[in-house]
Every structure is written in C-alpha cells, then in structure tokens.
Amino acid sequence: MRIDILSAVPALLDGPFSTSIVGRAQKAGIVEVHVHDIRKWSTNKHKKIDDTPYGGEAGMVMAIQPIVDAIAELQAERKYDEVIFLTPDGARLEQSVVNALSMTGNLLMLCGHYKGIDQRIRETVITREISIGDYVLSGGELAAAVLADAIVRLVPGAIGDGASALSDSFQDGLLAPPVYTRPAEWNGLKVPEVLLGGDHAKIECWKDEQALSRTMRLRPDLLGEDLGKNKDGEDV
Questions:
Q1: Which of 140, 119, 5, 129 is nearest to 63 (CA)?
Q2: Thinking of the domain 2-152, which architecture would CATH place it in?
Q3: pTM higher than 0.90 for the full model?
Q4: Residue 155 · residue 30 · CB < 8 Å
Q5: Where in the chain is the domain with CATH 1.10.1270.20?
Q6: Of 29, 94, 188, 233, which one has the fewest beta carbons inside 10 Å?
Q7: Per-residue pLDDT tens for 51-73?
Q8: pLDDT tens-digit readout, 2-45
C-alpha cells in the first residue's frame, strides 16, 4: 500500500509516520507513506498557496492552482483508489470506512488549512471527504495522521498478531470487552475467574456479554434505535 499526503506544513507529520506500527510497516516494506509540500507546486514567486475569499469573509482559502497541479502530477505517476480531503464537514470516520480503505492499493490525502480549499476542487477532484470528529483543528495534518494510522494497522503484516486488530472496538459494532494481564490479583482486585479457567467457550461468552454491556453503558448510540425492543419492535 502507498499513501501520499499533500500538506501546507509537512513537518507536522515527521513524527507520526517514523515510529510505532506505521514506522515499522514502512521499514518492512509493507506500506509507503510520502508527505509532499503543496508549496512545491505553487507558481507564485513567494510560493504562496492561499488567497482572500470572495464574499468578504475573514480568513484565507487554499488556492486551486497548487493543489490541482500537485494532484495531477501524482496521478500521472499512479492510479489512486481515493483522493481524500480531510475536513471538519466531511463524513465522520467510522471503522467500516477504515476497513474498506485498508484493502486499497494507493491513497492520496489532502490536508485542509486556513478556511479550507476552493469549493471547485471539492466538486471536481476530491473523491471522498472525511472528518475525524465534530471539532476544528489548525489543519488536516493530524487528521491525516489519525486516518493513516488506523488504515496501516489493518494492512496484513503491519501488526505482529493480525488477529488482534479484528478484536478491536467497533470491528463488530461494539466496544471491546475489558482486558487483564498478570498479576492475577493486585491491591485486592482480582482478574475475573472465567478468564483463569481455560474454558474457551465460557471465555468467549463472557467477552460477548462484557462487550454488549459496556456498549450499552458507554455508547448506546452504537446499538441503534432498536435497543431495548424485542423482535416485533415492542419495548421490553
């Protein structure tokens, strides 16, 4: 897999992709992550990539020319499965989207900055718009790092135990159950007996019950409007 990221401040992404799972995956040749400075494509003598918005609104808008030229040059080198714009008003990122993107070959991400990008770019060049939450950051770089990390960890070989990712929260629509490690007792707090017994059927049943219980308590929205209703849609 290859991920290309267009940024106005590429230095922000030096750290996230050089360590941990993403860093190891790159060293192993499993993925490639390339961060590009959009200013490289600016035809302005000062390498300016923004301009004042029409309509008199405060702030600045990322201009068409550097972005479109950058994307065109990269697309001439390879075909991208998606051209993703990281923006607060995009579709909220869900695990199902991450799963689908992890099975692609090449992804191109554009980090927004200032007041955003010219709308005409969104209408003609971008294929998917993603938000990591209902809040505003200084730019899309941190959002791109979040998205790339979520994707790369699912690429086969990126994690030593690939099955581990399949039991993460949200993979089955539920929060993950609580986890424990040694010692079996700490400060009077004990690991649940079922986890110590070695009966895998009982352990799986306990995990399912805990996952459902935690989701009902902490994130009932994940269970939808049918929570608390029987198969006929009646309250129970």
A1: 119
A2: 3-Layer(aba) Sandwich (3.40)
A3: no
A4: yes
A5: 167-223
A6: 188
A7: 999 998 899 999 999 999 999 99
A8: 999 999 999 999 899 999 999 999 999 999 999 999 999 999 99
Q: Where are the beta strands (DSSP E) in 50-206?
A: 50-51, 61-62, 82-92, 106-111, 128-131, 185-186, 189-190
As a whole number of angstroms, the distance between CA 30 and CA 80 comes to 17
Q: From the centroid of its chain, how far is CA 43?
A: 32
Q: Is 17 helix (H, G, I), strand (E, B) or coil?
A: coil
pLDDT, tens digit (0-9, with 9 covering 90-100), for 145-169: 999 999 999 999 998 765 566 666 6
Q: Where in the chain is the domain with CATH 3.40.1280.10?
A: 2-152
Architecture in CATH for domain 167-223: Orthogonal Bundle (1.10)
**Lookup result for tokens 């995009």:** 90
| Pick from 32, 37, 1, 39: nearest CA to 17 | 32
Question: Quick one: 82 exposed, middle or buried, by C-beta within 10 A (0-12, 13-18, 19+)?
Answer: middle
pLDDT greater than 90 at residue 234: no
